[in-house]
Amino acid sequence: MSVTEIKENVFSVGAVDWNIRDFHGYSTEKGTTYNSYLIKDEKIALVDTVKKEFKDDLLFHLSELVDPEKIDYLIVNHVEMDHSGSLPEIMDIIKPEKLFCSKNGHKALLEHFHREDWPYEIVKTGDTIKLGKKTVTFLETPMLHWPDSMFTYIPEDKLLFSSDGFGQHIASTERYADELNDCDLMHQAAKYYSNILTVFSPNVKRLLAKVAEMGIEIDMIAPDHGVIWRGESCGEIISAYERWCNYISADKVLVIYDSMWHSTEKMAKVIGSELARGGLEVKMLNLKVNHRSDIMTDVLDAKALILGSSTLNNNMLPVMADFITYFKGLRPKNKVVAAFGSYGWSGEAVKHINQVMEAINLPLAHPGVRVRNVPRPEHFEECQELARAVVAAVKEMA
Ligand code: FEO
């Protein structure tokens, strides 16, 4: 990434991580960026830093613009290590007059870095500091994506530094959404939302309402990951967040399964065909070849999930247990579910899947279909019945 002036005297100075492929279980096949921004005014402020391994990239970019020791203020919008891992070394170099953070940010910085001596200045929503011609206003955004998170806004530039919000895991030299030739952008933004923010959708909803209430005008959204949204693209990503945080979905159903000796797979295929006959968009997702985080991207706009697993050692198959654990943590809402699977002698997989779904308040459209060993035609009829029950439940949903 090279230094880019994104507004007059506001610069993108962060780093590109082309090679990261796993972010806490989320597959980042396109890499990512750790964005940091420098505001040059009578007071010079740095907004967020980068992951520890990318400290030299940040310092190299800063040194093109300013002697790092001349930076007056450091604004820490978020303490997670991908944005603060380099902080101790950066603090030692720039020795800022003040470090601005939220109350929870202060607590998290102390717990991470054990540095009582840093010049903390705790800020809350609506607090404003004057840099010279520009001012910056803070907006606390708890749980987007940690309790400490906050946004920083420059009203003179209608520029919102949105921390993890509105991010995407995309490595690129281009800095703006409208410069990417890759039409995968909204897919990556959806993947990011689904895998990181779904569980915090009520907070996203409250935040969007608060931004509207505060009358914040936005011409540019600069997140801490991926490309910057400017002009019309700001409206596109905000509209997408409105849909996602309200769990708005399509008449789409996912058949997510794993199979030991193809019996569960045969059931999955019959279920998939019957769902399609019922007029739903169907995706068949074999857990052996689809990553949990890609499946979660499809979950975002699906109205139903049908989960299939053979029984192994009185339980579901390991890849299904992995997926369900991940899915449960992200707590998607406004979906109906059902389960199916074959077994040899005990057959607990369907029961265990149903228990997890009930525990997270996702309604079962059907009690489930279990088949001992290899399915016969009458078992396929049961699978078709299950599919028809899901079609009916989806059609009843708003
Ligand atoms: Fe990109 Fe929650 O850190």
Q: What does the secondary structure layout of this molecule look like, with pairings?
A:
Layout: E1 4-7, E2 10-12, E3 15-17, E4 22-23, E5 26-27, E6 32-34, E7 37-39, E8 45-47, H1 55-63, E9 73-75, H2 81-84, H3 87-94, E10 98-101, H4 103-113, E11 120-122, E12 128-130, E13 135-140, E14 150-154, E15 159-161, H5 185-197, H6 201-214, E16 220-222, E17 229-230, H7 232-245, E18 250-258, H8 263-277, E19 281-286, H9 292-299, E20 302-309, E21 311-312, E22 315-316, H10 318-330, E23 336-343, H11 349-359, E24 369-372, H12 377-396
Parallel strand pairs: 8-9, 9-10, 10-11, 15-16, 18-19, 18-20, 20-23, 23-24
Antiparallel strand pairs: 1-2, 2-7, 3-6, 4-5, 7-8, 12-13, 13-14, 14-15, 16-17, 21-22
Helix pairs in contact: 5-7, 5-9, 6-7, 8-12
Give the key terms:
Metallo-beta-lactamase, Chain A; binds MU-OXO-diiron; alpha/beta; Rossmann fold; 35% helix; elongated; six-stranded mixed sheet; 2 domains
Give a verbal description of the structure.
- The protein is an alpha/beta fold and 398 residues long.
- The chain has two domains: 4-245, 4-Layer Sandwich (Metallo-beta-lactamase, Chain A), CATH 3.60.15.10; 252-393, Flavodoxin domain (Rossmann fold), CATH 3.40.50.360.
- 35% of the residues lie in helices and 24% in strands.
- The strands form six sheets. The chain has a seven-stranded mixed sheet. It has a six-stranded mixed sheet with strand order 12-13-14-15-16-17, with helices on one face.
- Strand 18, helix 8 and strand 19 (281-286) form a beta-alpha-beta unit.
- The protein is elongated.
- The mean pLDDT is 97.
- MU-OXO-diiron is lined by residues 78, 80, 82-83, 145-146, 164, 224-225.
